[in-house]
Design goal:
By secondary structure, the chain is an alpha+beta fold. It has helices spanning about 10-30, 80-85, 130-155, 170-180, 185-195, 250-260, 270-275, 290-295, 315-320, and strands at about 35, 40-45, 60-65, 65-70, 95-100, 115-125, 170, 195-200, 220-235, 240-250, 285-290. α1 packs antiparallel against α3.
Amino acid sequence: MKEKKESLVYIQTQKAIESLRHYFQDELAKELKLTRVSAPLFVEAGTGLNDDLNGIEKAVSFNASNKKMEIVHSLAKWKRYALKQYDFHIHKGLYTDMNAIRKDEELDDIHSYYVDQWDWELIIKKEERTNALLEYTVKKIYKALLQTEKYITKQFPSLYKVLPPEIYFITSQELEDLYPSKTPNEREYEICKKHKAVFLKQIGKELKSKTIHDKRSPDYDDWELNGDILVWYDVLEIPLELSSMGIRVDKETLLKQLKIRGCEDRINKKYHQMVLNEEVPFTIGGGIGQSRLCMFFLKKRHIGEVQVSVWPDEMLKELKEKNIILL
């Protein structure tokens, strides 16, 4: 096993974070033809624009201008609405800095109450809602990751390359077939350890075992045409999810998936009506974790080393004993 080099010191880390973020977002925008836009920190409750995640997490909310507002969980649905409002055209898209609060998150080395990611969305034709386009787009994003790794390891010689030249594609059903006796997390561990960079497709759909690999909201990704970018993180020896993405629902898949999840009551919300009436464009989009990306490329052991958040006292004590100081 390759010897791990000493990680960056504090000031170097701050410089590396800034450098890495700017470089990657420029590469992403270039590969996918994206324009940077401003985005909301909060949206009006009840419109359907907020990301419902797994459907059980509650958004942080407050009242303003006689309306109930919610801090976003992500901008998965807002982006599609914004593409219409900003009059974007076919094969053009947007990206933005998304900052969220997920107060129900279970904290650990890679999860925080504070979520920061690049949210992006690209307009496609209806006939392009295919697996071929999904994989083509994933390869474009992976190319940006490879270029970023090349750049950051040249800027900071204490870092080293780990990404393979190509990303490996597999569906959640194929993964279950490979490891039928293992849990979804154990399957991700095995496939990532073997291939180092994996795009795991079809998250949210029911498997032959009558289970699902992982939960996914029924009203933004098409479960047949979505997936997660996973990389093997040698510092913690775990699979690390860098991105969740997919081709978005059309009216047929929206109705089908809402019924499967028992969420038909969402149909009358503003966003869902726009999808049903085809008043928003057909799109592909996703989120790419900024802190996750920094943690991965800068070889950090805890996400709190690259972002500021709140942590339990016992966690802080344990990390301090390991000489891991959080921001």
